[in-house]
Amino acid sequence: QKEVEQDPGPLSVPEGAIVSLNCTYSNSAFQYFMWYRQYSRKGPELLMYTYSSGNKEDGRFTAQVDKSSKYISLFIRDSQPSDSATYLCAMVTDSWGKLQFGAGTQVVVTP
Amino acid sequence: NAGVTQTPKFQVLKTGQSMTLQCAQDMNHNSMYWYRQDPGMGLRLIYYSASEGTTDKGEVPNGYNVSRLNKREFSLRLESAAPSQTSVYFCASSEAGGPGTDTQYFGPGTRLTVL
Is the CB of residue A101 less than 8 Å from the CB of residue A88? Predict the structure, then answer.
């Protein structure tokens, strides 16, 4: 069983809708949680970074961590066609640990 | 400021051939990484170098070797390519510390096919 599970999608939404993405994990030692965005045929880029449970907001993006349920989420408000990409969750046990990535969810925002 | 660059962008090899993937960063970062990305598997760490002069195995190191040539450059070598090594390879770098707390910057990737 993978340590990090993520639905690969694709997830298709109309422009302006809220996009909801999530990952589950099995290792309770994970402490740092990240979301990366990857456009087609490009390298991933860091979107959001959170430590511990709770919410973090950055513009149209909100990241949530629920350690008790071992569940993290990313919400994109007022989605735009430019948000069409693959979103990967990643997590690590401590500052010197190795990142564990989810498989990535492909998001398509249609005009 | 080019960030992280990788060469080549595409490569086709026959089984048993060898090749070296090159990676360079111009951000004066201490740590560098090599990942492979396969459909449904996400990114998996092959090797990393926490600082110049050190290298360590990641999750899937078998069949690969690495060299941290200097602070800027980190190469990945396939000595005898196998079809299972068909993948997209990404190099990344980060400023300091370990992979957990500082941002990793990724290159554009190398698409490798082994026939």
Answer: yes
Residue A83 main-chain phi, psi, to 5 deg: -85, -5
Residue of A nearest to B109 (CA): A43
Nearest CA among A103, A106, A86 for reference residue A25: A103
Residue A72 sits at the vertex; the CA angle it makes with A68 and A77, to the nearest 5 degrees, is: 135
pLDDT digits (tens, 9 = 90+) for A87-107: 999 988 765 667 889 999 999
Contact B100 A43 (CB under 8 A): no
The Cα–Cα gap between B13 and B19 comes to 8
Q: Are strands B10-13 and B110-114 parallel, antiparallel or unpaired?
A: parallel
* Option in B43, B101, B109 nearest A101 (CB): B43
Residues linked to residue A95 through DSSP beta bridges, in sequence order: none
Residue appearing with tokens 């390298």: A43
Write out pLDDT tens, residues B16-65. Answer: 999 999 999 999 999 899 999 998 888 999 999 988 889 999 989 999 99
Q: Is B41 left (phi over 0), alpha (psi -120 to 50) or beta?
A: alpha
